[in-house]
Specification:
2 copies of one chain form a homodimer.
Chain A lengths: L5 E4 L8 H10 L13 E5 L1 H10 L7 E4 L10 H7 L4 H10 L5 E4 L3 H12 L9 E6 L6 E4 L9 H19 L6 E4 L10 H11 L5 E5 L11 E3 L2 H28 L5 H4 L1 H7 L6 E5 L4 E5 L5 H16 L2 H15 L1
Helix pairs in contact in A: 1-11, 3-5, 4-5, 6-7, 6-12
Chain lengths: 336, 336
């Protein structure tokens, strides 16, 4: 079962190692959304700091610790950091997957470094041209899987179609959607809208065998118009950060207004809304298309978010997302 | 003063001609945010319908009516509609500007048709390579001018720099910002982030003489990090529709939650928030860079939004936005 272990980069994220260690402990506790056995977790980072941290939190329930002597900071340039820090907790976590000692790597750290390390060290799954970052957001009560959120800022039309397939596999295997509807994020509903990329991609989607529902506009994300929304990594990254910033901003605006009206209880009343729009609740993003399961959590993650990211990695592995992607691509290739 | 008149496309928008006529009447009433003289408005559309509509609303206060026998529907393909309907209210409105009988054209109708008619019939201002759609949103209490929102989905780097200049001119002349800070919408703060377009545009912005503050990420739009945010028309259009959809969605989510907590007064308490995030409140978008002032209001516009769009056109003309754009570009060209 070595392949099903999960390497957690303890040093990554704004609140590391405190939040990551607490998240690891939460994942093996009865309160976990998706409970896993302690022996499944490999904690990667400064060994002394991890041992000390766990001792302060009540002891090590059975995690294996893998030492990594270096840390890539959140703001470091990914390419140069990966070169200058070969023993970083990110590189060591990915190396554990590469060596088959873990099936998944989970980090709240530098996204670019994680994507870079995973892409370079693990390589792509058979048939995959370019990996993509998928994020499942559940604003409306039904999850929408958005991809690519920034791995590939200048995709080709075929990459977009592969994102549609990978997103569909994920939505089916991990989110329980039977026939995920795939939409192409665009600036109008009709075929022929958008840039040359979109004009080229549209007929490819139609011929792909995916449950393609056509173009999706910005506002459609909130209307359950599609279960998988495909976009280039540039637009996707802008959209993701906009969603995050806007939800925070709107909540503050609303709370301020309500409190000005004397509703001091408003914060509590809106905790549910906050939870629904809070990125941290979703766990993390999945880098789909690489040989291994790679979860990139939000830098701001608290223990709950870390635990959700670990659970997401476990679910993706257990549901054999990667195997389904390879099968799906091979089937699509045979049809083409 | 013929050049300072405003042609209003009475037939454009989801609630036309009722909302447009009421908006025109509001604009000349004491309640107008930006009051204008009735003689300044040219109402363009079906003459009989306009006369009948005005009669039902208490009479014509002094508007001139210009007959247009055709209407381009919201969902029509812009290019073919412009070809097949030469006497559409949109084409006639733009033609009034072309002939110098009006300085501005305002429509809540088909955006693509309005942009197409304006670009083809009016031509660009001296020095302008490509027109861009600017929208000023005021979510945080300080307006942010976003452009391009969809006129130019595949811009070159020089187009983006011109958008920065045009947005700055608008923010200075119409929004009263002394030294508008210009940001480039991107997926990271550092120079070198983003697509080839962004990598090429960054140094051009630095050398432009604009008050360039660097790259701006999605969440920065809510942090007053820049006064003018420049992007390609594809990303801009996605962002605009996302903002609109998300604000509506969030308000519904919050209101539902508060009402479930028994706060039946919440709708009233949040009217102020609704107003702040409601696109209709901003009036409309300005097509900057064409020879004339062109305002494209939201299709859903009610009378208030129509009146705001008319006011926006009047302000842009009175503040000589186009003259400042030409001067600014000529100065930038002399420096280069």
């Amino acid at each position: 079962m070595a392949a099903l272990r999960i390497a957690l980069d303890v040093m990554g994220g704004d609140h590391a190692p405190d939040a990551t260690l607490k998240g690891a402990l939460l994942s093996v506790s009865a309160e976990a959304k998706h409970r896993i056995e302690p022996s499944r977790l490999l904690l990667v980072g400064d060994k002394a700091a991890i041992e000390q941290g766990l001792a302060a939190l009540g002891g090590n329930p059975g995690f294996e610790i893998v030492h990594a002597s270096q840390v890539i900071a959140m703001a470091e340039s990914p390419a140069s950091a990966l070169r200058s820090k070969p023993d970083s907790s990110i590189a060591v976590s990915i190396a554990l997957v590469k060596k088959g000692l873990a099936g998944a790597a989970v980090s709240m750290g530098n996204t670019g470094a994680m994507v870079g390390a995973a892409t370079l060290m693990l390589g792509t799954l058979e048939g995959v041209k370019r990996p993509g970052i998928a994020v499942a957001v559940n604003l409306t009560g039904k999850p929408v899987t958005l991809l690519d959120m920034g791995a590939n800022t200048a995709p080709k039309a075929q990459h977009l179609v592969q994102y549609g397939l990978m997103g569909s596999v994920y939505a089916r295997a991990c989110l329980g959607l039977a026939e995920p509807r795939v939409g192409l994020l665009n600036i109008g509903e009709e075929e022929g809208k958008g840039t040359e990329l979109h004009k080229e991609a549209y007929p490819l989607f139609k011929a792909s065998g995916l449950n393609f529902v056509g173009n999706i506009e910005g506002h459609d994300i909130f209307r359950q118009s599609a279960d998988v929304v495909v976009t280039d990594g540039f637009t996707g990254n802008v959209v993701l950060k906009l969603l995050e910033g806007f939800s925070q901003f709107m909540l503050q605006l609303v709370l301020g207004e309500l409190k000005a009206h004397g509703a001091s209880w408003a914060g509590e009343a809106l905790a549910h809304v906050k939870k629904r729009v809070d990125y941290a609740e979703y766990g993390g993003a999945l880098l789909l298309g690489v040989q291994g399961t790679v979860v990139i959590g939000h830098g701001r993650s608290d223990a709950t978010a870390v635990s959700n990211a670990i659970g997401q990695g476990a679910r993706a592995m257990d549901a054999q997302v990667n195997e389904h992607i390879v099968t799906g691509l091979s089937r699509a290739g045979a049809q083409a």
